[in-house]
Each structure stands twice: as C-alpha cells, then as structure tokens.
Amino acid sequence: MLLFENVQKQYGAYTALNIDRFTIDDGIVWLQGENGSGKTTLLKIIAGLLPFKGDIIINSTYSIKKRRQQFVRLVNYAETEPMYPDFLTAAELVKLYCHAKKGSIQDTEYLLQQLHVYDAYKKPVATYSSGMVKKLSIALAFIGNPAWILLDEPLVTADVAAVQTICALIQNRHKQGTNFLITSHQAFYAGQLLFTSSLMASGQTIASIQI
Amino acid sequence: MMNALSILQKVIVSHFYKVNTGFFLFVFFVLFGIPQNIAQFHLSLIDGMLKNPSFLVLVMAAWLLYNFKCMDYVIKQLKQPQQLFLYCLYNLSYIRCYAYFLFVQLLVYMPVFIYTMFVTAIAFKTNHIVAGTGIILFNTAVIGTTPLLYLRVLQKRPLLQNASLLRALPRLPKPLFSLPLFYLWRQRKQMLFISKTLSLLLLYIFIKLYQPDHYDIRPTLLCIMLAAATNSAIVFEMKIFDDFFLQMQRNFPLYMAYRFFTALLSFTVLLLPELLFVWKGYPDYFTPTDYLQIASLGVGLLSLLYSLLFTGDMTMDGYIRIVFAILATLFFILLYNPGFLLEVFMLSLSFGLYASYYYAFEKKYD
Prior knowledge:
A: alpha/beta; B: mainly alpha
C-alpha cells in the first residue's frame, strides 16, 4: 500500500501534482491520464528521483522523507525512455543494480533471455535499439525484492512477442507478492494483464476509476 | 564550391567563434590587454621562443592544445544530428572534400596561424632559421593532417586505427565511483587532456622554479590548490553526467555517507596524476605527514565544488565565478596555514551541503 500525504510537486510556478491524501492499494494498478497529467512525475517522486513536498509512506511503515533507504529498497522503477551511460554493457548494469538492490544476477540473466536481449548482454548499450534498451530497463526494474515496481509505458517500442512476455512477467511476479503501478496509453486485450484497480491522473491529482 | 564553403563557414566556423567568444576575449586580454608595452612584451616573448628550444616546444604544445580544442569542436559538430546533411559532401571527390575541410581548419586555427606567421617572419629576419623552419613544419603538419581526421568522421570511420584493438582488451570492472571517470575518458578526452596538462605543467614549473631556502608547506599547498582547480570544469562535467545518466542511482538504497564516499573516491582517482607527480618535490617541499594535507586539500576542494553544484541549477559562468571566489578565499586562509583544520572544515562543509541538497536538487530543463 502506498499512502500519499499532502504531496505537492511544482515545476517553477506550475503545479504538476497536488494530492491531499490518497491511498493506492496493493495489486496491479493501471495509472491512466492524458499527456502532461502528471503520471510520470508521480512515478518519479515515488521512485525518489524528484524532490517534492509532503510525504509518501509504503506499507504503513517507511516514509520516503524519514527512511529513504528502506523506502527505495522497496520501490523499483523503469522509465519511459531509459538513458544509461552508453559505454556500459547490460552485464555491467545488471551487476551494478544487483549490487545496489541486493538482487540475483542469474535471475536477471534469465529474465533477459526471456525478453530476447541476452544475446547482446556483453555489448555496450550504445549498440542497442530503443526496444532493447526498454526491455533492459524492465529487467533491471525486476531486480531485488521490491514491494512495488513502477513501470512507465512498459509496452512502448516493444514488439508483439515482447508485449506478451512483459505481461506474463508482470502477472507471475505479482503472484509472488510484488505490486505494480503501470502507466500505459495502450489498451490491453482481455486477459492480457489482469489489473486489480485503475487510477486516473487529471487536474493535478489522482482518483480511482472503474477498470 | 562557394556554396559548400559558405555553408561550412556558417555551420561550423562562425558557431565556433560564437561559442568561444569568452575564451578568445580572455586570451586577448591576457596577451594584449595586461602588458603595458604590447610590442615590447611580444618581441621579448618571441625572442625567448627563438633562442630557447625548450620554451619553443612548450609554446608549440600550447598551440597544439588549441588545435585539439578546434578538432574536438569540429568533430562534435560533424556528429550532431542536425549536421547530418554534411555527409552529402562525401559524394564529392576525396581531394575536394579535403580542400573543404582544409578551409575549415584554416579558419578555426586562424588566431594561432596569424601569430605563428609573425613569429616565423621574425625568426627568418633575425637568422633563427632552425626555429623558423620548425614552426613552418609544425604548422604544415597541424593544418595538413587535421582535415584528414574530419574526413574520417565524415566517413564514419573510427579516429584511431587501433580502436578495434582497444575494444578487444578485457573490460575493466566499473563500480559506481568509476562511472563518471569512464565517461570523461570516453566522451571528454580533450577536456581531461587539457586539464591534466595544465595542472601537471603548473606543478612542474613550481618544482623546477621554486627553490625553498627553508621548509614551508604553504607554497606547495597553494600550488596543489591551483592544480586541483584546473579540474573544476571536469567536476562540472561529472555533475552533468550524474544528472543525465546516473539519475537512477537516486533509486538505489544507498546511505548518504556511502554516496559521498563514492564521490570522494572519484575525485581521488581523478587527482591521482597530480598526487603522484607532486612526489617529484619530495623531500624538499613536503614531509609524508604534510603529503596527507596536500592530498586532502585537493580532494576537499573538488568535493566542495561538486557539492556546491547541488545547491542550485548553475550555469558554467556562475560556477566559474564561485570557483574564483573560493580560490581567492583559500589563498588567504592558506597563507595562515591552519593545518588539517582547513581540510577537515572543507570536507565537513562538502558533506553537509551534499547531504542537505542531494535529494532536493532538480535539474531544470529549458
């Protein structure tokens, strides 16, 4: 469970988010909204990438403001357009993430095999296509034992086979107890991904909506 | 042909002088604004070059550094996506393409070229034939070979023949602290090369020219402070790298002390050439205990500059002003030699700023 308390995010004079009090329950949550409605900003502040006013509490235990290390250990994030130092290989990134997030290199390698990027595992990211970088970012987001995985447009640039694999990976990981907050402009086919709830970002805040 | 030359001049040459206006104003001010008798100053300078081969080599090294700056700029421009249309030039004959880029090279190298013409004229007039010929050969090599590199870029060929050999070498492990250094090594070679040359030259001149008549650590501390400060632009570049490519590390569950320690490790490795070179001055210039003070002053200064970059979204101009203000302050403090207190204070202040602003910092994109 993620509890938002007086969360405010401003870019200069522009208020991107203003959430008084809101709770996101565990599950696979679809965060929808128009472009510029604050979806990415919301994910980034939960992941600890952006400063903001207010607080977010995970599982009624850890506050991002008071116990940041414990908080971010429980939250992983994959960006819409991930950027990595182009001289690093996937193997080096996996090692770095596994060291920081206390994850298993073997498990991640297996994930990359499933996503069909393992062939380029030891090649620099500079040689990857945007789709491969995206798949790598998703695999990196699965590292460790996060309570929440935040995926920003995970299906963008993914080919048809990858969409199926990514949905299956999300579904399987959720069965093991990990929650997902996913933004996607793409519609999902029935049964492709079983969302437990849906949120709408609009008017600088978020609200629950019917799936 | 005139059309192609005009386009090259607009997109590469004019822009080069525009972005480097500050640099040229500074150099012009130093060479022509500060000396009271400009002609006498330059005649003495040229006389020194022509009579002292070591000095001439040093000046040639400075000209070469300028050429590296030009090369780096032109190559980066050629690689810009908006300059992709320039690749159509490669449909022309190799000789014609070479001629076009020779024109570009001549224009960007022009300030040095004009000065060397004067030096060469004086050399032949004063019968310094060897020096004069040396300068002509140097210019011919620099102006003649650099366009070949531009053509390689245009052909999308690697600049180094042994680049594939380098790739074949085993990859070094890349812990978090090393990432900014690898980035500098791969993407900012010219900046790294210029900064290191300047700082090592500074240390070399200091050790060569300053002969202490009694033991005093202060001149060495002042010199290492200046040598470390030549890395200021590199620190700025490391912060840019952090902002663009290492944003994900904010999501890593790392303690602030560990993050700061990682940054200190980066700066220590960055300053390693200076910290090793300074041993040339042992034992006349410092004792082993004072060496710790020397090392911590260098690392402390860089960490302070780095931490200050988190306090606001600074431009390079604003940052350089802060660097000068800090150097001026440190200069007076070092004259009183407060010992380790200064280094402890600098490191504590750096950590305080870093810890306070690290998560509050946000890069603003225009």
